[in-house]
Amino acid sequence: MKKVLAIVIMVLAITAATAQNNGRTKFATDMYQAKHEMIIEELGLTPTQQKQFMPLYEQMEREIYQVNRTARALASEVEKKKNPSDKDYEAAASALSRTRMQEGEIEAKYFDKFAKILSKKQLFQLKQTELKFTREMIKKKKK
Fold first, then answer.
1. For the chain, what are the domain ranges?
2. CA 52 to CA 30: how far, in whole Å?
3. CB within 8 Å of 56: residues ≥ 6 apart
4. For 114, which of 29, 79, 123, 130 is 20 to 30 Å away at the CA?
5. How far apart are CA 44 and CA 53, in angstroms?
6. Whose CA is closest to 7, among 55, 62, 59, 64?
7. Better-scored residue on pLDDT, 91 or 110
8. Is 45 in a helix, a strand, or coil?
9. How far apart are the C-alpha atoms of 141 and 143, rounded to whole Å?
10. Distance between CA 96 and CA 19 in Å, rounded?
């Protein structure tokens, strides 16, 4: 279940970041907006907090997207090769395996920035809200 949640979170982050970079599709725009609205509502962000926090949060999402994009691109290259070497497989597997660690490092870096804007309770609620959003998207997908 944790892997599914991590994958869905990654997909949502990728969707949001891709939308920002490629002239948002309606679906991506809706997902991006819904997630951010849920965060604002669930955390009870003040207008001042929103102005300070949301650009940082979006920047974090873009960085996470880039980490995943790079790893996926390497994996895609290996899949396209007719006879990939063990070295190719190792490089792709390593890149894919490191993504969670890199995501964690990015989140840790932004946690310190978020802590200057959000209360301790809001910091806690942020992760809970991200998981709640992911669960809701999984439920909608199943229907």
1. 2-142
2. 22
3. 110, 113, 114, 117
4. 29
5. 12
6. 64
7. 110
8. coil
9. 5
10. 22
Mean pLDDT of the chain: 84
Instruction: Give the pLDDT confidence of 21-73 residue by residue, as tens digits.
Output: 554 578 777 888 899 999 999 999 999 999 999 999 999 998 998 998 898 88
Instruction: Identify the residue whose tokens are 């390593």.
Output: 94
Residues 6+ apart with CB under 8 A from 82: none
Sign of CA dihedral 101, 107, 112, 113: positive
How far apart CA 131 and CA 35 sit, in angstroms, is 11
The answer to whether 13 touches 68, Cβ cutoff 8 Å, is: yes
**DSSP secondary-structure letter at 22?**
T
Higher pLDDT pick, 33 / 129? 129
Tell me the three state secondary structure of residue 82.
coil
Structure tokens at 88: 């190719």
* CA-to-CA separations, 101 to 16, 80, 114, in angstroms, rounded: 20, 26, 19
Sequence-separated (6 or more) residues with CB below 8 Å from residue 142:
none
